[in-house]
Amino acid sequence: MLPLILNYCHHGPDELVDGYAVRTGLVLESQRRLGFLPRVTRPPAPGAPLAGEDPYLPRCRTPAWHRWATAACHLTRSFALILRVDLGMLAQYLAGVVARQHPRLLLATTPWPLGRTAAGVARRFSLPFVYEVRSLPEESMVAEHRLTPGDDYYHYARTREIAAMQAADRVVTLSEAMKDDFVSRGVPAGRIKVVPNGMVPTPLPDPGARRAFRARWQLGEGPVAGYISSAFRSLEGVETLIRAWPAVEAALPRARLVLAGKETPEQRALAEQLGIASGIVFTGTIPHDRIGEAYDALDLFVIPRTHDRICRLVTPLKPVEAMSHGLPLVASRLPALAELGEEGRTGWLVPPEDPPALAAALLSALSDPDRLRAMGRAARAWVMAHRDWEKLSAAYGEIFSELLAIYAPSERVPPPRR
Length: 418
What we know:
Blueprint: E1 4-8, H1 19-33, E2 37-41, H2 57-60, H3 79-84, H4 87-101, E3 105-109, H5 112-124, E4 129-133, H6 137-143, H7 152-167, E5 170-173, H8 176-184, E6 192-194, H9 207-216, E7 224-231, H10 238-251, E8 256-262, H11 265-273, E9 280-282, H12 291-297, E10 300-303, H13 309-313, H14 318-324, E11 329-332, H15 335-338, E12 347-350, H16 355-366, H17 369-386, H18 389-392, H19 394-407
Parallel strand pairs: 1-2, 1-3, 3-4, 4-5, 5-6, 7-8, 7-10, 8-9, 10-11, 11-12
Helix pairs in contact: 4-5, 5-7, 6-7, 9-12, 10-16, 14-17
């Protein structure tokens, strides 16, 4: 019988609108490919009814999700509300799932209420526990001006997040920058494994899709830079990119900037105020199964993230996707983003929140189409060599097999498939 892995997630691959959900889908597929039997459980959005079969799951070839109505894992800016959350109830539900499913290993993903709950349930059932830290929600809330580092909840969440990592047998995270931060805060380095965001190899860019997308959005024949996200939060630095664009448009009148995501009224107003609204195309959020068309229409991908702590630590999925489509990057010079590619060969790094520096890099890139194409080919080659998900995800098989052998040494655990 295949070893059953219970994945305890904040949200899953039925919500393919952000990197967290996409990664969850990839992790589930990799577990199956490596010879394990994935099961998954998650809390729904607050107030949502219990649900059974999820429409995505037949495509993912994993069983039904277990859901329960609790807001415990949905972080709130109110410290008082968090303290009133009944994490015991959350643990009771998870324990019930474990008792019914009989998993051999428990894998939980951020945020900390899931990690804390999973750690306790794993101890109760003598199960190995792996905690995958994909983000730091309290840092995101600081970047979005919903918390300050002086708030009680900020310190509370930081303490709980590290406690969940310290309680885990192994910690998986996305970047060397995150690992270094966790080690500095007391998590043993030998317990942490970096498994970066990766990609299933994609086909070469489709010229037909490129022409169709450009025609649909009237992008013309000039160079096109772009940024794609599910929503343009303040930490993503879209305002810096908009402020940089007038200098680009003045030098390259045919250039266009595509911003694909849920923009804010203030971002549209800023483009109007700067007199560049005609050169910026706001497409709104693009369904994940159509994002490839948007990448193929671009010549350059921009990641203008701010200097906030969350941006220095967490490497997003979108630039990896962009590079796999043959796009070079112009990115903020931050530790997490500097881990992607090679500066000068696959893209450019610029100081964060510096519109003139960003404008200079964009002009340098877009003014030389031959160099841009060569760097795009190098970016795709780098992703294929260093961010191939099948290669990266083999680490899960090694971790699972090692822990299963420790927790059940008398049972023969088959090695992961290659």
